[in-house]
Structure formats: C-alpha cells, structure tokens
C-alpha cells in the first residue's frame, strides 16, 4: 500500500520491509522485491516460475528489469534456463530509454529488447497505453499458462525524474523532451481522455477520484514521517533463520544485538 | 566500566527513541550525554544527526613534488588519471558513466582531452567490464576499469579472483594482466544503505595475486593510484566515497608515486598502536587525540594503505614497541581484515616456523614460492621481524568493526565503528 511504500522510503517500522530495506527493497505477498544489483532478480524470477510450474496451481511469474539491466549476463542465463525447461515466466523489460544517464543507443548493440530473447518469442508493447499493457499481459499470461514456455515483453515507456536522488535527470536529455512526453503520452492522461471521450466517466467523476487519491497520498506521507523508526534491537534481526537467538558480534564487546527470526 | 556500558547502552536507546523531543523529555538524558559528550548541548541533538562520524584531517603540504594545488579526493583521482593517460599512450579508462565525468566526477574532462577511444562508457555489466579489462591488460595496454560502487563488484568477483589474480601463476609467467587497475568507490557514506556502503576488501584479501589499496586522503590517493596503475600486478583501488568532497588538501600537480605494501606511521606513540585504513584513519586519529587529552595515553596511529600484500613488518615493530593493538574498520567483524592482522601479529612466524624454509638452505619449495613475484614484499617482512609479538602483548588485540549484519539502512549511525566505540575499546585495553 502507499503508506507502506512511503514509510519504507523513510525507514520507518510501518514500511513493507519493516524499515530495514530502504528505497530499493520493497516486498509484499507474491512480490519478491527489488535487488541491489539490477538484473539479479531475473534468474530469481526463473526460479519462481519453476516453483509455479511445479506447484501446478496455474501461476505465472512476471520478472521485470530495465533497459540498463538488459545488458547483464545473468539475464541471458535465465532466458536459456527458462526456454530449456519451458518455465512459465514472463520477462518484462521496462524500456524507459535511459539507464541512469545512458541512452539505449549508447548502451546496447541492439535496442530491440523484445528480440533479445532470441529463442524466446517477444512482444513490443506501448507502455504508455494502459489498456495495451493489460491486453499484452493477458496474452502473455495465457501463453505461459498453456505450457508453451517463457515469453518476453518490452514495454516502451518513459521516466520523468532522474534515476535517483543524485541524478538531476536533465543532464543527458532536454527538458523539452520530458515535457513533450508528459504532455503527449502520459499514461494517466491518455486513459482519462479515452474514458471521457467514450463517455465511460465524466470529468467531474475523475476529478473526485483525483481528490481522493491526493488525500490518500497525503495521509501516507504523514504516516511516513510520523511513524517511529524501528527499534535499535532490530539491527541484528533476521540475518539467519535460527532457533536459539544468537548474539551478533561487532564493534563493541559489551553492546551486542540479538539476532532473532 | 559497567557504568560506561550502561550509559552507552542507554544513550544509544535514547537516539533510537526517535524524535528530538524525546531527548529533552526523558529524565537523566542530560546526565547520560554529559557523561560521554561533555561539550554537547541539547540543541546539538538535532544537528548531530547530519554530522559525519569523522573529521577529515589534512596532511601538511608536501614540498618535494613541486607545485601543489588544493584538490579534493575526486579531483586528485582525476589528476592521477590525467597524468597516466598523458604518460602512457596505451592507457584507457572505461566503466559505467565515465564518459561524462562519472557519478562522482572522477573522470571529468578526460574524454574531451584524450578522445572517445580512450575514455568510454560500458553497458551495465560488471563481469563484462572486468573480463574485458583483463583482455586489454593481457595484450599489454593499460586498462583502468571503474566499477561504479564497490557493492557492485560481486558480479565481477569471478573474473577478478579466478581470472585476473591467477593469470600469471597458471600460465607460468607467460602471460599476465598486470596492467589492469580496477577503481571503485568504497565505504559508508551516511545514506548509502545496503548496496552503496559496503567495504569488500576482506573478500579480496583472501585472494593471492591481486593487490588491494585504500587511500585516506587526496595526496595519498593520487600517489597510490599512480603506483597501482604502474604496478605490474592487477590492482583494486578502493576510494572512500564519503571523502570525495569532504577531504581537501594540497596535492602536487606533477605525477608522483607512493610505494605499495608500505604502511605509514602517521603519528608516533608509545602506549597503543591504532591501525585503520581509508575513512577510519581519521576516526582513529581523533580517538588518539581524545586518548591523549583524557587519559594521557600516547597512541601510534598507522594507516595500512595496502590491504594485500600488507606491511607486516611496520605493524609488528609497532606492536613490539607499544604492546597493545587496536584495529578498526567498517566492514563486519567476522572475517574482516582485522582478523588477519590480529592473528598474524599475535603469532608472528619466526623464520623457523615458516613451513618451507630451512635455515641456511633454500629448498625447492621456497624457491618456487619466490617465483610468485607478488609475494616478495611479504617474505622479507617475515624475515626481518624476529621477535614473537605474542610475548610483547600487554592486552588482547582489540578489533572495533561493524556488526555482523548487512550494512543497515536506517541503523547506520549505530552500525559503524565511530570514535566513541573505538575510544571505549581503547580504554578497556589500557585498563586491562
């Protein structure tokens, strides 16, 4: 939920990883989280797909990575394994045209990320169109569920802000470009236009939703700043799974932390 | 001692209690803080969260290398790389985002000056970067690879440990990748969390064949980096990222070398030896002055500089003189490099203990060992320090390091071995 995400960013105990993960480590039921090394989650996804297949509950695994991470070697290892064993894994490359600051033309020999799977069929999807993404995912999930093996999807999308706190986002691209994408192909705006034009909703109703959403975010932000930080004892928790809690050695001989899981 | 422990524990719990309001409201808060921080006031509590855990202490201006300029750490790295590229026409620099100057501005201006075929970006592939660097180095060109953060060096771990380090050995000196240098920002930075704050030098210390070097200041960084680049062995150069801007001092413009595998005694002393590297050197310098002021204890402060092959001789001679040793680093305690220093110092092999040496006769095994060139700094060190340090120790060797947990996000101020933890460990050693 929004509260948990914002609380995790500020390192509070109400966060989705209890405040111990930080910005890149969000976890939830069926959401196996973000990794420090981008691309490390792709073999993980292949493994989860194997578990899905094994359990026989008709589940599929969606593994997301970016255009920068698409150049990591371990992704190709995962492609090979998934194709070899026909794992129900949907590999999704979110191509927002820039790594942190490197544009795809300067980082990749082939910018057709959906073709990178080679022996895995690939779809190129307009990531800015919500309905398009939904249909593509539906198709991909049906493909995987029918036992044909993995499939690759490249979502062509965009990133407005910089990659991280230290990246201004404008040193490698022009503000005009960002503005252009924001005004012409913003996904929320496109969906709104579509809904209004086909009389599915009126502008007022959408405005109401906007107000509600704003309120929810405000509440969440409030929670994120007011929630207490995790207690100091938790410094040592959850390192291992251990029956008797053991003491974590460290800087001080007399201040020790117990590791409990 | 128990009072100190209780107060320290209470103090840490107070900090964990959250909002600054708690500081003022909890009874005895002033007392606990007053005990350990005599100069602190209640108002400082709010500011103290943003203050770094160390104070950079610049070295005096070096006179023997010509004209100097005030540079901070990243500028001194740029200067060293500039000198290398100018001197060596085969030198190339590559890594993620190095072309525009690097995420820490270490390579600013180099692409414009030397051209895009000598300073270029790589895609996001650390294993590829190091493997590719080994390839360049094997042909004889100088490869200077950058890994964007030391935490990301692990995909390249196989290439470094299995390929680069063993190349000379397994080819019988037919080939080597000695002209490879890997540079990487290292260490805690205050807001790095799990994957931007690690200090992985201990993982590489276990690998014969490479050299690992960590500077403490801009002057040291430039000299050590130039030595690494010119050294005929693959080197990993870790740059403390928190010092990139925080550390500024006078650095010579011309190239100069600082020898590798030599520790530097920054401050002479007679009661305790303090050993650290990188940012932690400044922490223990402060601890040394605190000890002098409050306990009248004279500390010898040593910057190890090269992690492997490390300068056994200097450390052992110092411990023989003082009888007490405290080693401090940010990396976790178990298996951290302090454990290697600690066990070597307490039982220094006299030459009779060295397994392959027979006094007066060079055996076949010791000759083979001599051929592993990178070991040469270590073997003379073992020969020179003749006395066993163990009998000279007045107190057990103290290691003040990070906890055995992943580097925490929100708990960072409690995790790092700051000056108070080092000071307390020192007091315990003195009173042993």
TrEMBL record, chain A:
- Encoding gene, per UniProt annotation: PDHA1
Q: What is its biological role?
A: The pyruvate dehydrogenase complex catalyzes the overall conversion of pyruvate to acetyl-CoA and CO(2), and thereby links the glycolytic pathway to the tricarboxylic cycle.
Enzyme Commission number(s)? 1.2.4.1
UniProtKB keywords: Mitochondrion, Oxidoreductase, Thiamine pyrophosphate, Transit peptide
Q: What class of enzyme is it?
A: oxidoreductase
Where does the record place a coiled coil? none
Assembly and binders? Heterotetramer of two PDHA2 and two PDHB subunits. The heterotetramer interacts with DLAT, and is part of the multimeric pyruvate dehydrogenase complex that contains multiple copies of pyruvate dehydrogenase (E1), dihydrolipoamide acetyltransferase (DLAT, E2) and lipoamide dehydrogenase (DLD, E3). These subunits are bound to an inner core composed of about 48 DLAT and 12 PDHX molecules.
What's a Gene Ontology MF term here?
pyruvate dehydrogenase (acetyl-transferring) activity
| The protein's name in its UniProt record | Pyruvate dehydrogenase E1 component subunit alpha, testis-specific form, mitochondrial
Q: Does the keyword Mitochondrion apply?
A: yes
Single GO cellular component annotation? mitochondrial matrix
Q: Where in the cell is it found?
A: Mitochondrion
Dehydrogenase E1 component domain: residues covered: 2-232
Q: Where is the signal peptide?
A: none
Query: Which prosthetic group or cofactor does it need?
Result: thiamine diphosphate
Q: Which residues cross the membrane?
A: none
**Where is it chiefly localized?**
mitochondrion
- Which superkingdom, per the lineage? Eukaryota
């Amino acid at each position: 939920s929004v509260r948990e995400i914002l609380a995790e960013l500020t390192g509070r105990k109400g966060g989705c990883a209890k405040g111990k993960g930080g910005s890149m480590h969000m976890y939830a039921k069926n959401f196996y989280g973000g990794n420090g090394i981008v691309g490390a989650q792709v073999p993980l996804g292949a493994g989860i797909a194997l578990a899905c297949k094994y359990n026989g509950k008709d589940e599929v695994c969606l593994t997301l990575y970016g255009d920068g991470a698409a150049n990591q070697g371990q992704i190709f290892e995962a492609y090979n394994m998934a194709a070899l064993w026909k794992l129900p894994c949907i590999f999704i490359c979110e191509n927002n045209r820039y790594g942190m600051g490197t544009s795809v033309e300067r980082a990749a020999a082939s910018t057709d990320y959906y073709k990178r799977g080679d022996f895995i069929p690939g779809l190129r999807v307009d990531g800015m169109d919500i309905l398009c993404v939904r249909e593509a995912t539906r198709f991909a999930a049906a493909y995987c569920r029918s036992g044909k093996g993995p499939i690759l999807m490249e979502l062509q999308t965009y990133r407005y802000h910089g990659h991280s706190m230290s990246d201004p986002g404008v040193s490698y691209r022009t503000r005009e470009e960002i503005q252009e994408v924001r005004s012409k192909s913003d996904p929320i705006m496109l969906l709104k236009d579509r809904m209004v034009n086909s009389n599915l909703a009126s502008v007022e109703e959408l405005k109401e939703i906007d107000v509600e959403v704003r309120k929810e975010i405000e509440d969440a932000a409030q929670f994120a700043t007011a929630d207490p930080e995790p207690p100091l004892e938790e410094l040592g928790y959850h390192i291992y799974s251990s029956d008797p809690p053991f003491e974590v050695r460290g800087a001080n001989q007399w201040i020790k932390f117990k590791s409990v899981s | 001692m128990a009072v100190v422990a209780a107060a320290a524990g209470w103090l840490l719990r107070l900090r964990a209690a959250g909002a600054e309001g708690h500081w003022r409201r909890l009874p005895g808060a002033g007392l606990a803080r007053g005990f350990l921080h005599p100069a602190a006031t209640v108002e400082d509590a709010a500011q103290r969260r943003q203050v770094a855990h160390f104070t950079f202490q610049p070295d005096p201006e070096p006179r023997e290398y010509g004209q100097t300029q005030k540079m901070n750490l990243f500028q001194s790295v740029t200067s060293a790389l500039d000198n290398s590229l100018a001197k060596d026409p085969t030198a190339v620099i590559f890594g993620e985002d190095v072309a525009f100057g690097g995420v820490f501005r270490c390579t600013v201006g180099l692409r414009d000056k030397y051209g895009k075929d000598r300073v270029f970006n790589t895609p996001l592939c650390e294993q590829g970067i190091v493997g590719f660097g080994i390839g360049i180095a094997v042909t004889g060109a100088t490869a200077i690879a950058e890994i964007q953060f030391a935490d990301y060096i692990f995909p390249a771990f196989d290439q470094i440990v299995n390929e680069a380090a063993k190349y000379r050995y397994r080819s019988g000196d037919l080939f080597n990748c000695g002209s490879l240098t890997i540079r990487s920002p290292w260490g805690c930075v205050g807001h790095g969390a799990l994957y931007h704050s690690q200090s992985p030098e201990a993982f590489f210390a276990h690998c014969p064949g490479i050299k690992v070097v960590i500077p403490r200041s801009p002057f040291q960084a430039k000299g050590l980096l130039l030595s690494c680049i010119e050294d005929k062995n693959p080197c990993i150069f870790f740059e403390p990222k928190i010092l990139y801007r925080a550390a500024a001092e006078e650095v010579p413009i011309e190239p100069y070398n600082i020898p590798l595998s030599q520790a530097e005694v920054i401050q002479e002393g007679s009661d305790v030896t303090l050993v650290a590297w990188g940012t932690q050197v400044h922490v223990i310098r402060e601890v040394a002055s605190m000890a002098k002021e409050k306990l009248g204890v004279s500390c010898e402060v040593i910057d190890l500089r090269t992690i492997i092959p490390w300068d056994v001789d200097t450390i052992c001679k110092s411990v023989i003189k003082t009888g007490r040793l405290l080693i401090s680093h940010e990396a976790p305690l178990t298996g951290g490099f302090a454990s290697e220093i600690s066990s070597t110092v307490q039982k220094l092999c006299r030459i009779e203990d060295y397994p392959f040496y027979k006094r007066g006769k060079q055996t076949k095994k010791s000759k083979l060992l001599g051929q592993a060139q990178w070991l040469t700094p270590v073997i003379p060190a073992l020969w020179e320090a003749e006395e066993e340090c163990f009998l000279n120790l007045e107190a057990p060797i103290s290691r003040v390091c990070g906890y055995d947990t992943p580097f925490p996000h929100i708990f960072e101020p409690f995790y790092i071995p700051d000056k108070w933890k080092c000071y307390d460990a020192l007091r315990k050693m003195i009173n042993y």
